# Entry
Amino acid sequence: MSPPQQAAHSGLVPNRDFRLLLSGAAAGQIGAQVTLVALPLVAVLELDAPAFQVALLTAAETAAFLLVGLPAGAWLDRMRKLPVLIRADVVRALGMISIPAAAAADMLTMTQLYIVALLTGVATVFFDVAHQSYLPALLPKDQLVSGNGALETVRSSAQVVGPGLGGGLVQLIGAHLAIVADALGYAVSALFLLAIRHREPAPQAAGPESSLRKEIGEGLGFVLRQPLLRVIVATTGLGNFFAALLMAVQTVFLVRVLGLSPGAIGLMLSAAAIGGLAGALCAGRLARSLGQARIIWLSSLATGPFALLWPLAGKGAAAFWFALGSAVVFFGAVVYNVAQVSFRQTLCPPRLLGRMNATTRFLVWGTMPLGALVGGAVASAAGPRAAVWVCAIGFLVVPLPLLFSPLRRMRDLPAAAPDFPPDAPDSPADPADSPSDVAGSPVDSAEEPGQRTSAL
# Structure
């Protein structure tokens, strides 16, 4: 049974529009996971790029969160979200199809890969922020954790299927042709989104005293005023820094150090992603039994040390250690994501959702280009294995902000922002209207570049 069918069967999300959202997420995520394998292999195998140039691809993909992350939220709070989702999918589909087209004409260069990565990254910024801000319009607050769990299941399932499919396609038809699957995935996602009937109300018009700078400041202020949001942002940003470091050198490490073929790389990443799928299926039960606040720091603390298996991997059967370490780290990242994304959506008033999500993304994804550049520099100077060691040790540091925060002494998270101005329109729902615990088992976030170990 597919994730959309599971969600519908559970009774948690009986409406047709949410099933279409899930189906679109499935199509887009499978395509994106194919590209996770294929795009760096285009650089490594077809363009023979050195480690630092391959790392620049990851930096270009994620630089958009630094460039347009903050204004994107303010812009999105002024417009309906669904048309933005559709346009972003179209832009990403066109960007990806340009790669095999250029390769067929013998005109493909690293410069084009960087441009495509940057443009699709910008589209992803708008897609991801709009996606997280659109979900509360489809589901009541008491189903947000279950809805996020459903989307996380879709993403985790794509992480199981997509890399193996991508590696196989690269082996059969070549890296640049495999990227056609990503373009098709985004196109199919756009078609599912076009079929959604729900239409959001027009956003509240900005007053004459409003300005983009003021609206950005309001979103930034909301995130930075909340002590729990601050510590979650700090932890997620740190985790994403080291996740991007790994992403930047992973393909070079697997091909040139472990000697794996494209097909073997795909199968290894698919096997590792089973941990993420298990995390999506267990997140609700773990939050109910241990507490939503407690599971946020426990998930990171318990699974981070398994990152040390990455640099211990070797050729042949010893490559298994890389897959095992990834599977356990994926498990913890997904459990963490379901808990903290649901908390953010519940805490924030509807009129600030776009700005809150964009501000959070700016802060936590903005560390990724830096992590990618550091990974490329370390790999160039000391080799890919040394860069993977730096990443693995970094994952031991990630939970420290959580352990020295009020979360360490809490079981559950508050359901409303206690210090948000009471006279503000669309103030958060009364705590009695929102669950303090997780309701129902998950069947999430995608987002996306949420395609790897990074948090949302």
User: Anything to note?
Assistant: Residues 1-13, 418-456 have pLDDT under 50 and may be disordered. The two ends are 26 Å apart (CA to CA). The CA atoms of residues 25 and 189 lie 6 Å apart. Residues 16-46 form the longest helix (31 residues).
